[in-house]
């Protein structure tokens, strides 16, 4: 029997709700608050209030894999250079958490991955240090400079920085949230990315989804609306411009190479072709989270896996 | 036949830049005459021979010959002075004559007037003769820079004896050179290195041993300018020692090396009898001797450089495959065809595994042979593949999958297994074993795992790569309409098997390898795919990528 694509996608969203991982979510919140307090205590008047800046802030998180992004906005005079800021925050977090977590420098953040607790849960928080452009200007414009850490050493190591307005980035998706449930599409694309081992940045997927909503009349059921976005990516990803809402000088489309964009276009094409040929394939591209199966309230058992988790393996020949 | 002569005469008369200087006449079955070609400012005359099949070719050779022995020093002229022209096909005599004359005139302009040199190297013309006519020496390059005048012993082996036009032909392979206590081995794999070896003499002369620029000298005496006295002394001593130690009638081989393009060395081989060495020694003073060669004809053999770049020169798979170590697990129909394709495509390092024994009914749709009888698939395929490529190194065993399953739950063993599998770059799983696919999905290995299997009647072929392989396999096969009822059930205690011919399977396996090779060669993402076939309106294969 053919799969009801709309129902399946709704189930995927339900199955991947972060609230299903409430316990883990609470652990993240507690750790985030602890780090937040520690930063404020350590840096006092040199730091503004840290805030959530990732998928949780944007309400686009899925429960299969998540972490918290914590933006730490520093005053201009707190550090003489962005590199000093980055290293100082790293040193502080390393000293505080090295006995309970892996602390590592990442591209623009310091990653803290806490050791698994007695339930095997792992909390991951990325702290993103940023510095206002001029003393006290942050209160006016929310703009920050982020240090770009180059682990493998560029010619001028650490000379790169990103100027952005993280609050504007978060606000951008909030502003668009009501447009035909845009965030649902972002979450579904994240599910696709996670389960299919794909590389596009979530931020890229968010922006191109918003662009698709700008350019197209998105309507119909959940599959039709998702399909419109997928088709938009397929047809436009190689040429589309995606300015960073936090700084229009940052071209987020440049974060992917032409080759990666072309591969993404092919991925979208193949996905639509396969699902249109056989609706059952939607379950491969957008699987349910095995950990949170969805109760079937309908009479037809469109997905036998929830009543028989191990279906007989098919016969193959060769 | 008179008509034919008239038709030929008419055809030549119609070409404005040609003058018939001696009328065409029938000589036996051959029409002969002479013409002059006007390629202003040059006029050249040619003897003409037109053979009965004309205007058709015979064994890819034109059946018209334009001969001028004075042109022998130019490119594309055969030893008898005939110009090597290849023209377009035409079944009409007059058109073919026009095409051939046009081609001849182009040769005159290009090679005679403008003296253009071809960009590719043209080997010297060697005409095997005497005892060498039915012998060939195949060699590969060795890692050594020979010096002009260097000589010594080399070893060779008999590869095989075959028939050409009812005549026995022997092929030899060069095994190694012995230079200053050092052994410089050819690149053959161990199967070939194990063959019995015989000694010969090598001499590196630097320049090709030719006369008229491109033709190998035909007399030993003409070889004299290419060698120095130290070699002639060595040859004399070799003869003396040989006569002390061996019986008469032994055939000896002298290989002569010279430089060709791009720092490459080519070897030509001469056959001669131990009973009649081609050299002499004469006394030139109380204690001085002078060596030389007799004026007797050289028995050149056929020789061929078989180095991998030539062996696979006509077409090979992507270097991403050929330069990799590859494990093929499961060598039934798909696996054996895959191995064959990989080896013919230039892959050099293969490890094969299967627990199964070849049965006679495997032969019709896999790369096994009836003649080998009952034998393990690994043993037979290993030999088959080595017969195809002298460069492939093949290892194999019958236990790998059993070991993987037996010790899977042992944590220490898993690490050992992962380490072992990481030694290869690609693992092709052609077992159709779902357990194994599951286990491979659990392993943390850097090697790419490529699973290939088909549905009954070879309606579809499914190829799934490493990421979430088990899940994808299960899902894809679940969606395909795999007929598991109409199976082949031979009598006896034997699991039913799918129905499909060699042709049904091979066409899909080749398509799949083509797709994988393309992805690797162009550095494209490896996407799972299945091939679906349809014979509703002619046979069609459709690539469905995920």
Which keywords apply here?
heterodimer, A: 318 residues, alpha+beta, Poly(a)-polymerase, middle domain, Beta Polymerase, domain 2, 7-stranded mixed sheet, two-stranded antiparallel sheet, 11 helices, B: 546 residues, alpha/beta, Ubiquitin Conjugating Enzyme, Rossmann fold, 9-stranded mixed sheet, 8-stranded mixed sheet, globular
Largest interface: A-B, 26 and 39 residues
Helix share, percent of chain A: 40-55%
Whole-number count of domains of chain A: 2
Order of helices and strands of chain A: HHEHEHEEEHEEHHHHEEHH
- Counting structural domains of chain B, the number is 3
How would you classify the helix and strand content of chain A by structural class? alpha+beta
Please state the average pLDDT score of chain A. Answer: 89
Helix content of chain B: 25-40%
* CATH structural class of the largest domain in chain A: Alpha Beta
Radius of gyration of chain B: 31 Å
Uncertain segments of chain A are 152-158, 301-310
- The second-level CATH architecture of the largest domain in chain A is 2-Layer Sandwich
Report the CATH superfamily of the largest domain in chain B: NAD(P)-binding Rossmann-like Domain
Mean pLDDT of chain B, rounded to whole units? 93
Shape of chain A from CA axes? globular
The main pleated sheet of chain A reads as: 7 strands, mixed
Largest sheet of chain B: 9 strands, mixed
User: From the structure provided, what is the oligomeric state, counting identical versus distinct chains?
Assistant: heterodimer
Structural class of chain B: alpha/beta
CATH topology of the largest domain in chain B: Rossmann fold
Structure description:
The complex is a heterodimer of chains A (318) and B (546). Chain A has 318 residues and is an alpha+beta fold. Chain A folds into two domains: 5-15 and 173-285, Poly(a)-polymerase, middle domain; 18-165, Beta Polymerase, domain 2 (2-Layer Sandwich), CATH 3.30.460. Chain A has helices at 5-15, 22-43, 55-58, 82-97, 138-141, 166-176, 182-195, 202-215, 222-236, 258-277, 282-285, and strands at residues 51-52, 68-74, 101-105, 110-114, 124-132, 144-147, 161-164, 243-244, 247-251. In chain A, the strands form two sheets. In chain A, strands 1, 2, 3, 4, 5, 6 and 7 form a seven-stranded mixed β-sheet that branches. In chain A, strands 8-9 form a two-stranded antiparallel ribbon. In chain A, helix 7 (182-195) crosses helix 8. The longest helix of chain A has 22 residues, at 22-43. Chain A starts with a helix and ends in a 33-residue tail after the last helix. Residues 152-158 and 301-310 of chain A have low confidence and may be disordered. Chain B is an alpha/beta fold and 546 residues long. Chain B has three domains: 2-113, Ubiquitin Conjugating Enzyme; 130-308, no CATH class; 312-545, NAD(P)-binding Rossmann-like Domain (Rossmann fold). Chain B contains 14 helices and 27 strands. In chain B, strand 6 (151-164) and strand 7 form a beta hairpin. In chain B, helix 1 crosses helix 2 and helix 12 packs antiparallel against helix 13 (469-479). The mean pLDDT of chain B is 93. Chains A and B meet through helix 10 and helix 11 of A and helix 8, strand 24 and helix 13 of B.
């Amino acid at each position: 029997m053919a799969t009801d694509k709309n129902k399946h996608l709704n189930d995927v969203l339900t199955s991947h709700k972060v609230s299903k991982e409430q316990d883990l979510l609470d652990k993240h919140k507690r750790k985030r608050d602890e780090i937040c307090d520690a930063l404020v205590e350590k840096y006092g008047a040199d730091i503004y209030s840290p805030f959530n800046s990732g998928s949780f802030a944007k309400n686009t998180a899925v429960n299969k894999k998540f972490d918290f992004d914590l933006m730490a906005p520093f005053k201009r005079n707190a550090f003489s250079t962005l590199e000093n800021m980055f290293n100082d925050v790293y040193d502080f977090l390393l000293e505080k958490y090295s006995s309970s977590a892996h602390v590592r420098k990442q591209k623009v953040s310091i990653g803290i991955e806490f050791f698994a607790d007695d339930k095997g849960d792992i909390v991951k928080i990325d702290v993103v240090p940023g510095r206002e452009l001029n003393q006290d200007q942050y209160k006016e414009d929310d703009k920050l400079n982020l240090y770009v850490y180059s682990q493998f050493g560029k010619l001028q190591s650490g000379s790169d920085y990103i100027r952005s307005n993280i609050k504007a980035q978060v606000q951008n998706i909030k502003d668009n949230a009501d447009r035909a449930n845009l965030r649902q599409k972002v979450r579904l694309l994240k599910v696709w990315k996670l389960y299919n081992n794909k590389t596009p940045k979530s931020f890229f997927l968010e922006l191109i989804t918003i662009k698709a909503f700008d350019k197209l009349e998105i309507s119909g059921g959940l599959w039709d609306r998702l399909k419109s976005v997928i088709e938009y990516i397929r047809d436009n990803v190689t040429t589309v411009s995606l300015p960073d809402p936090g700084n229009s000088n940052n071209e987020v489309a440049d974060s992917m190479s032409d080759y990666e964009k072309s591969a993404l276009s092919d991925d979208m094409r193949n996905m639509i072709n396969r699902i249109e040929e056989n609706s059952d394939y939607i379950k491969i591209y957008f699987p349910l989270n095995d950990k949170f199966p969805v109760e079937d309230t309908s009479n037809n058992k469109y997905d036998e896996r929830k009543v028989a988790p191990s279906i007989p393996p098919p016969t193959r020949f060769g | 036949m008179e008509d034919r002569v008239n038709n030929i005469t008419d055809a030549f008369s119609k070409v404005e830049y040609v003058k018939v200087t001696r009328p065409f006449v029938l000589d036996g079955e051959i029409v002969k005459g002479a013409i002059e070609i006007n390629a202003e400012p040059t006029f050249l005359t040619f003897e003409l021979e037109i053979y009965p099949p004309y205007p058709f070719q015979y064994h890819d050779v034109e059946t018209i010959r334009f001969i001028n022995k004075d042109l022998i020093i130019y490119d594309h002229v055969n030893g008898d002075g005939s110009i090597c022209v290849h023209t377009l096909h035409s079944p009409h005599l007059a058109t073919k004559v026009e095409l051939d004359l046009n081609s001849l005139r182009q040769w005159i302009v290009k090679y005679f007037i403008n003296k253009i040199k071809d960009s590719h190297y043209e080997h010297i013309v060697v005409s095997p003769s005497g005892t060498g006519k039915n012998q060939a020496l195949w060699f590969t390059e060795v890692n050594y820079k020979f010096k002009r005048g260097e000589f010594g012993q080399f070893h060779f082996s008999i590869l095989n004896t075959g028939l050409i036009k009812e005549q026995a032909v022997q092929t030899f392979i060069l095994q190694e050179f012995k230079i200053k206590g050092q052994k410089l081995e050819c690149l053959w794999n161990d199967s070939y290195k194990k063959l019995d070896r015989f000694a010969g003499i090598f001499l590196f002369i630097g320049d090709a041993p030719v006369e008229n620029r491109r033709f190998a000298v035909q007399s030993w005496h003409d070889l004299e300018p290419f060698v120095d006295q130290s070699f002639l002394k060595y040859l004399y001593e070799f003869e003396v020692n040989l006569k002390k130690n061996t019986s008469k009638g032994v055939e000896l081989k002298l290989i002569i090396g010279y430089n060709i393009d791009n720092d490459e060395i080519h070897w030509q081989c001469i056959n001669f009898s131990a009973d009649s060495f081609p050299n002499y020694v004469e006394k030139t003073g109380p204690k001085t001797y002078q060596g030389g060669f007799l004026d007797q004809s050289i028995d050149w053999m056929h020789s061929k450089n078989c180095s991998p770049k030539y062996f696979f020169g006509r077409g090979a798979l992507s270097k991403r495959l050929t330069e990799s170590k590859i494990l093929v697990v499961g060598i039934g129909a798909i696996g054996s065809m895959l191995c064959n394709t990989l080896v013919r495509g230039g892959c050099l390092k293969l490890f094969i595994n299967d627990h199964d024994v070849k049965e006679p009914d495997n032969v019709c749709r896999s790369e096994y042979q009836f003649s080998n009888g009952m034998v393990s698939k690994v043993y037979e395929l290993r030999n088959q593949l080595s017969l195809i490529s002298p460069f492939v190194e093949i290892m194999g065993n019958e236990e790998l999958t059993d070991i993987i399953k037996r010790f899977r739950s042992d944590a220490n063993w898993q690490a050992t297994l992962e380490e072992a599998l990481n030694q290869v770059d690609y693992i092709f799983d052609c077992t159709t074993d779902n357990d194994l696919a599951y286990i491979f999905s659990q392993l943390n290995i850097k090697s790419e795992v490529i699973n290939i299997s088909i549905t009954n009647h070879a309606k579809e072929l499914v190829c799934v790569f490493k990421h979430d392989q088990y899940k994808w396999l299960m899902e894809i096969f679940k969606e395909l309409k795999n007929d598991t009822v109409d199976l082949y059930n031979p009598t006896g205690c034997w699991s039913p098997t799918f129905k499909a011919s060699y042709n049904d399977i091979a066409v899909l396996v080749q398509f799949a390898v083509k797709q994988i090779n393309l992805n690797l060669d162009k550095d494209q993402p490896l996407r799972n795919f299945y091939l679906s076939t349809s014979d509703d309106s002619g046979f069609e294969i459709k690539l469905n990528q995920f």
